[in-house]
Structures are given as C-alpha cells and as structure tokens.
Design goal:
The protein is an alpha+beta fold. It is built from 3 helices and 10 strands. The mean pLDDT is about 90.
C-alpha cells in the first residue's frame, strides 16, 4: 500500500477517541490537495458461532445512526492491545461468552475517504459462558440468530453496519471452504 505522508498537518480537534487533522498531500498522480482526516485507533469484531449454527448479534442503540442497529460484538483497540485481544475482550464484555478457537477473517476499512480506522474481523467458535461487563454508555441486547438468517440480513439490508455484514459473509465463505456447524452454511 502506498502511503502519502502529509507535507503539513493542522490539528483541528482531539477528543477521547478521535483526532481530526487537515493534511496537505501529494497524490500518486502528482496532484497536491488538502484532505480532512479523522484519525481512529481501529477496532476488532467477532463473528461468534455456536455449535447449533447460531451467531451472536447485538441489537445496539446508536445515536449517530439514528436508532437501533444489528452489530457483531466489537470494540476499539486500546493502546498496545493486539486486535485479537480486543475481539476476545469485547466478546466477553458485550455478549457474555468467550471462545476457544479464533481465526482471522482479515481487515476492512470503515470509510477510507476520511477515516484511518481499520477493523479486524475474527471468526470465533467453541463458545462457552463468561461474565458480561457492558459499559453504561452502551445500550445492547444480545441475540443468537441462525447464521443463515444473519447472512440473509447482511445481503437484504436488515444489517446496515459494514463490519457486521462483511464479517458474516467472510465467515460464511470460510465455513463453506472449511466446513462448519450443521445447518450453518449452505
């Protein structure tokens, strides 16, 4: 990946999670332009699949999105924390389960025109109970949805969150290749 280092960076905002800069850059075609960049530490999400072929989806209230969304258990990377550790921590905190087996489903970019956020996706299996610890600033309902139905939701728009839709569909492709719980994929 070709990374353009900004000639000049002007800080406009620094908050608890993000900072916003204006960067003057030279594009690969030689054109010089000014871009507004939202710097985010990134995150990780878990496609947690149980032996019965159900996936953990959170119905979460998101003020910025204007209401309730279906999402995978996910969260922000903490400083120095590996992406897998973030996914493992968030699965326990938000869904009240842990997983014995973890497999990378790669990364994705949330909105590469303006955000630096890179999201790490994981397939989690061997599900067992753990103690949830949801944050007060999170309004979450935990649901275990048949995996096939969740994948249909990813395609028909019921699931609007990009990391969730992509994570489910990448997990489906992986399971079709490697085999998965009975009835989970077809």
């Amino acid at each position: 990946m070709h990374v353009m280092k900004p000639d000049k960076q002007t800080l406009h905002f620094a908050g608890r999670v993000i900072r916003v800069t204006t960067d003057e850059v030279v594009l690969p075609n030689g054109h010089r332009t000014v871009l507004e960049v939202v710097h985010h530490p990134g995150g990780a999400a878990a496609v947690a699949l149980d032996e019965a072929g159900h996936v953990c989806l959170l119905r979460q209230y998101r003020y910025v999105a204007g209401g309730w969304l279906w999402e995978l258990p996910a969260g922000k990377l903490e400083p120095g924390e590996p992406a897998l550790a973030t996914a493992q921590r968030e699965l326990i905190e938000e869904a009240g389960v842990s997983a014995e087996r973890w497999e990378s489903l790669g990364t994705c970019l949330s909105s590469p025109g303006v955000f630096t956020e890179r999201l790490h996706l994981f397939l989690a299996s061997g599900i067992r109970p753990a103690r949830a610890a949801q944050e007060h600033a999170e309004v979450i309902e935990v649901h275990w949805v048949p995996f096939r139905e969740a994948c249909r939701w990813a395609i028909d728009g019921t699931i609007a969150d990009c990391k969730t839709a992509l994570g489910l569909l990448r997990a489906r492709a992986r399971l079709r290749t490697n085999g998965g719980p009975e009835g989970a994929v077809s």
